[in-house]
Amino acid sequence: MKKQVTALLCLSLLVLPACNAGTEATSSSEPAPTSEAAPQAMPIEYSDSGYAEAPVQADADMYAMDTVMHFRVYGRDKAQAGKAIEDAFAEIKRLDALMSTNQKQSELAVLNRTGTTTLSKDNAYLLKRAMEINDQTDGHFNIAVYPLVKAWGFTTQKYNVPSEETITKLLPLTEVKDVHFDEKSGKVSLAKKNMGLDFGGIAKGYASQRLMDIFKKDGIPGGLVTLGGNTQLYRSKPDGSDFAVGVQNPQDVEDYVGVIRGSDEAIITSGIYQRFFERDGKKYHHIIDPATGAPADNTLSSATVICQDGTTADALATALMIMGRDEAIAFWQKNADRFEMVLIDKDNKVTITPGLQDRYTPKDRPAPEVIAHGA
Ligand code: AMP
Ligand code: MG
Asked: Which of 260, 277, 375, 366 lies closest to 313, judged by CA?
């Protein structure tokens, strides 16, 4: 509950996705809830938006997909804003039931248990996108990494440092080429025993993208959602002005290093501080390098991707974390028309792409380094 209050406080100032880092899992006394818990929606709060164009503002929190979510919707009246939030709740419940690896009956859980299943439309789309992004990122983004995520205990919060021997045994079970998928029928099968898929690096971005479709269908003039470290902006504020989204400070999750102004886009952060545990004085985070089978080990502490499509932004942010700073910059230079990004190093140095220069404002720190366009 404390985390939900924090999320609301943050939102009254600006959108601070990092504030509701409900997924943070440490060896501290408060265990993170598991996604076995059914999604839980909190009461909707209505207030005066201050905008003549859409006088009602509706805010609501939800706990689902292992994280605290916040929805804000502007509406011409309470009925319109409230319906958009109720529809958002329902959509998240539907997606959680399809994609969770912990809900026994979800399509993914069945696939991971039995090695084969037929995916419905949403999961089939997500698998296709995940495979495309695996290809584009040289295998860094890899949903077949599930056996490793499990071995490190991130699926159950029973954390564990697997032996070299275990990792060597599991690595051959994480190859995307062994995921056989027929797009037409949705039939998927895993070629080797004990393989499994994990949509944790892409599902929240897809979910926020779907919520944009819901808001469009409901005809609201503007709104936004934050799903853990993922923010997606639906259009703009009712007067046409931009939203302001805080980029979390990896060294203090209640703080932010700067603000991005924007509308109609996804702003999605992956970070080593979002979920981790400590063993013998060493921190182990949840973003697994498929080349080594261990948490990615480079100078980055977070990567934020900004682009129109939430699914793409989510997968790319995870991939950039595995690439590390230099490779991430080279990747952006080759794909500069696809996305903008903010990289934060472990010493809290902030680096941005040139497209953000006019809309990123640092908070109490020097101007960020701006990446040059590639040759
Ligand atoms: P994100 O917070 O979007 O970076 O996603 C991290 C989550 O994605 C982890 O908790 C795992 O469930 C999953 N994951 C870990 N490593 C990878 C990887 N290399 N590729 C895709 N998903 C991953
Ligand atoms: Mg991701």
From this structure: 260
- Tell me, in angstroms, the distance from the centre of ligand 1 to residue 274's CA: 11
Residue 372, amino acid: A
- What is the identity of the amino acid at 114? T
Cβ(134) to ligand 1 under 6 A? no
Contacts of 145 (CB under 8 A, 6+ apart): 174, 198, 288, 290
369-370/350-352 β-pairing: parallel
174 and 147 Cβ atoms separated by less than 8 Å: yes
Which residues lie closer than 8 Å to 282 by C-beta, 6 or more apart? none
**Which whole number is the average pLDDT over 101-128?**
93
* pLDDT value for 229: 80
CA 133 to CA 49: how far, in whole Å?
39
Neighbours of 340 (CB within 10 A): 24
CA–centroid distance, 4 to ligand 1, in Å, is: 24
Q: Which residues contact 279 (CB under 8 A, 6 or more apart)?
A: 27, 159, 161
SS (H, E, C) 218-266: CCCCEEEEEECCEEEEEECCCCCCCEEEEEEECCEEEEEEEEEEECCCE
Contact status, residue 121 vs residue 95, Cβ threshold 8 Å: no
- pLDDT of 36 > 70? The answer is no
Residue type for 30, please? E
User: Among candidates 144, 274, 151, which has minimal Cα distance to 199?
Assistant: 144
d(CA 313, CA 202): 8
Taking CA atoms, 267 is separated from 118, 125, 148, 249, 262, in Å, by 32, 21, 27, 15, 9
Best probe residue, ligand 1, of 227, 318, 320, 343 (max atoms within 8 Å of C-beta): 318
User: In angstroms, rounded to a whole number, what is the distance separating the alpha carbons of residues 207 and 360?
Assistant: 26
User: Are 322 and 214 contacting, i.e. CB atoms less than 8 angstroms apart?
Assistant: no
Please tell me whether the overall predicted TM-score, pTM, comes out greater than 0.85 for this model: yes
Q: Is 149 in the pocket of ligand 1 (CB under 6 A)?
A: yes
